[in-house]
Amino acid sequence: xRPADKAVQILAVDDDEGILxxxxxxxxxxxxxxxxxxxxxxxxxxxxxxxxDLMLLDLKMKEVGGNALLERLRERAAPVPFVVITxxxxxxxxxAVMKQGALDYVMKDMGLLDLLPGVVRQALATIEKEKVLxxxxxxxxxxxxxxxxxxxxxxxxxxxxxxxGLGQQLTAIExxxxxxxxxxxAVHPGLATRLSxxxxxxxxxxxxxxxxxxxxxxxxxxxxxxxxxxxxxxERTNAVGRIKCRLECAGPILIADxxxxxxxxxxGQEAINNALKHAHARSVVVRLGxxxxxxxxxxxxxxxGLPKTKGRxxxxxxxxxxxxxxxxxxxxxxxxxxxxxxxCLLPWPK
Length: 350
Known about the structure:
Layout: E1 9-13, H1 17-29, E2 33-37, H2 40-47, E3 54-58, H3 66-75, E4 82-86, H4 91-99, E5 104-107, H5 112-187, H6 189-216, H7 225-240, E6 244-248, H8 258-277, E7 283-291, E8 294-301, H9 314-325, E9 329-335, E10 339-347
Parallel strand pairs: 1-2, 1-3, 3-4, 4-5, 6-7
Antiparallel strand pairs: 7-8, 8-10, 9-10
Helix pairs in contact: 2-3, 5-6, 7-8, 8-9
């Protein structure tokens, strides 16, 4: 008996009482804790209050068969890892259940009791590997989220410093130049002209500083900041003059979580930038609104479409990552010479 097996809980489900007893005795002799259910209905009742590490499941039972039991568990959103116990001539049914996620199968024949402990241990090893992989993936997503959060927090700090620090200083210098220009206009016209030129340059610098700050801090604390931010982004895009961009949004879109609004804004910003820089598009339409039980952000352009190359560019990968960060789904469709459509759907209860 291995100490690690003592805590392992196995549920055996079979309507053949004799086989069920033999299965339980065999596995208990190997050190496993075994519960039994003589029917699918009994298994469902037992599973209401227990969570086994593995289920051994006979497919053909008179009362709630194996497939029906698995369907009930899926409806409950409470799937259990399972191994199929199958009789001769059930190859087709076994193959179908394997596609549904069975870890393995074992035949009901003379070798059943000899093979069963090894099959169970192999299935448990697979489950443990999947748990380790899932934990590693979860930790990777956590670290990615932390890096992204840290980056955006630093961006916000720099943006606020630009706006409140450098921007205010430049504005003060511009006002000082305007005052000096007024004083110098009567006694030193040449100096007044140069001061006027300096004031103009300072105003341009203030405007550029504010644009940089706005790019680093895309959304405010206002619940409708996403819509407002997209409107300003579209205005700046149209000011460039290379592309015509418009927003279709029926009304305010209130998002309480600023981080969610920020990720959606960045997805829209990246999609517009791609249309501007790579797609040679003439127009872009940004749609924001409800679609069923989800909030939809959709960006469509009339450019040349995505190139036929393997993999996606970094920008598309970042958009997909941002969508996953907030629990949204991102879909990208492309038609050659007809453009690209980026659709982000975020679950959004009424």
